[in-house]
Records
---
Amino acid sequence: MAYIEIKQVYKSYGENHVLKDINIQILKGQLVTLLGPSGCGKSTLLRCLAGLEEIQEGAIYLDGSEISQIPAGKRKIGMVFQQYSLFPNLTVEQNIGFGLQMQKMNRDLISEKTKKVISLVELEGKEKEYPISLSGGQQQRVALARSIIMEPKVLLLDEPLSAIDAKLRKSLQQKIMEIQKELNLTVVFVTHDQDEAMLLSDVIWLFNQGRIEQSGSPIQIYTRPHTHFAASFIGNYNILEAQEFHAMVGETTSDGKKIGIRPETIQIQRDPVLPAEGEYLLQGKIKGNSPRGNVLRYQIEVKGIRLHADVLFRSFTLFENGANVYVSIPKRDCLELS
Ligand code: ADP
């Protein structure tokens, strides 16, 4: 049974319908991401979960009880934002222990718990420092520790790493995953970054203009997007109109649907080979290439249609511009998109 259930939730700001018919189920101990472009309603849903915003229709359940009407302070849900919002006049350990102090917990117990979470977020040695002397990444660790120490039923993370530089972000992503596994935390993570969502998630809920476009494991979403939006947001799909696909392979798609082809499923060869069963073998011409880290992306023209294909950058046999090549594409990787 779902630990968190969001049922038919709608939310508007005036005429702006920000959330439309949201249905989400999250299991205990899962790390899920709400992924989507800026402005599609992810943070609003997170704030509704936290109780910082009211929903107009629908219901939210946590651990078997409806929480839609329960005030934020009583939901036992922790939240970490992009802005760290630490108390500047309190030290690291005071910031972390603050919530428990408000609950009038015994000092020794607070000190013991603070020590534990400081070790968990690897801030040993920084206990007596003030936020101003910490890096952005360290401040975010304090913010994380401050939430975790309250032993929330759910931890909500709203773009917590967006303000942190790329290299440090990677190590913090790793840290969040480790902590989540170690404490068996249920985490809802908001991001607009597909790579971050792919790395962190047990399940991705992909948002588009206030609706859920698709949900599934990172691999399902990456390899089997159902819609044009999903294929253009995740991966770097070639998206062909039905008539372009027909011009290329001579086949029609059902109801004139578009076709998505993931660039790494396309193989390029210099010499003709017999087409394997279940593959299209097409003649093409190399029109250019661009290195993308460990992958080389080729632009290829096939029957007047431009495709891009990604090849692992390990080969000496680069295809020069203008080279005539053969392109093979597995039929099962030509996905019809709604
Ligand atoms: P995301 O997190 O996906 O970037 P948001 O949930 O922040 O998107 O915003 C979704 C939409 O709701 C946007 O159009 C935004 O302008 C609007 N919105 C968010 N918060 C408020 C608010 N407090 N008052 C009015 N409109 C808001």
Note: DSSP finds nine helices and 18 strands in the chain.
---
Amino acid sequence: MSGHGDPIPMTSRACGALSGEAHVPGDKSISHRSLILGAMAVGETKVSGLLEGQDVLDTGRAMQAFGAGVINHGGGNWSVHGVGVGGFAEPDQVIDCGNSGTGVRLIMGAMATSPITATFTGDASLNGRPMGRITDPLALFGTQSYGRKNGRLPMTIVGAQDAAPVRYTVPMPSAQVKSAVLLAGLNAAGETVVIEKEATRDHSERMLTGFGANLSVEDTSEGRVITLQGQPELKPQTITVPRDPSSAAFPVCAGIVAQGSEVLVPGIGLNPTRAGLFTTLQEMGADLTFENMREEGGEPVADLRAKFSDNMKGIEVPPERAASMIDEYPVLSVVAAFATGKTVMRGVKELRVKESDRIDAMARGLEACGVTIEEDEDTFIVHGMGAGGVPGGGTCATHLDHRIAMSFMVLGLGTEKPVHIDDGGPIATSFPIFEDLMRDLGANITRD
Ligand code: S3P
């Protein structure tokens, strides 16, 4: 869907202790990939725990438009009837990926080496995001793209006929770019090689291997070298989607900043390429523990217990950790406001090309709530005011960005005065049960 309807202004207020268990939805990255890889396998892939957020629903609709069968059996159980690598049909409608950069970029990769044409669009946020980072490597396969100025959507992609495999070094740390090239490589005869200088989330590699692709990963002086043999027959899978660490971040951080709280967030995937926030929170002195560490579906999983933490210190977040917590910087900047001293986040310029310019969005909202910020293109510094020391009282613009909206709702749970947002509608893209889940913990989050 390319709009969110009327804005939904919301307010969050401190109301004492949060308590209880927060069962967050399925992982967004893995949900997108389950539908896309399911559509590229031959036969029926069964998925349980799928995130039923708008981003993922848009990807499901897109897979149907390319000829796959996508069926909702209820209760988070879905099945995908795949058409095989190279089996995509040409869609007879524009593919609307709504708010989702992951959706559009991975789908462009998946169709780029089939001799079909498709036109992609999205909402105002997505149509402002750079697609050149995808179309540049896809051009090496012979794929053509016709977008707006500066490589923006709406954009038409003409898939390559008889695509040649490529060797590509990803110029920025981006799992979306890496994944788009790997998905395109599936229908190119021969060996496609993708090199990333910094490791990013590795769900595509793990899942491609699970679906039966021949893929190897080697750590070399050049970086992580991923080699994929083209034109495999992907075998349908039964997938249980783990709960999303990026969504878990919100109730975890709420437990840390709301006075007297103790919150348990069970069954969270702790893939090291995703878990950087939790390490950072512990380094700041947050009372966060991992319980019942186990392995589920090949991924490390734990129950996270977060308690109100009134003795946190600002830290310098190691820049090499950025990729493993890239979506969590907005909520980290909220926690940092309740620590004492500066929290310094360097090497974070990718935040400027997410659903919004996340450094700018958080900086302006935190300032409106009385917090001092420093920033440059690649750096974000929050001057902490200590637990109980953040005034609040501001109205924060969310810029069609779900994580900005949820971060400011967490902020208001620890500030002196309420925190308002102009639009909580985008929360439904990744965390449709956020308001209910937070209220069940005892949070005072209301629609105005
Ligand atoms: C994602 C990769 C990241 C992340 C996004 C999900 C993915 O984006 O921010 O929310 O599923 O591959 P980039 O690849 O642009 O860093």
Note: The chain has two domains: 10-26+242-447, 28-240.
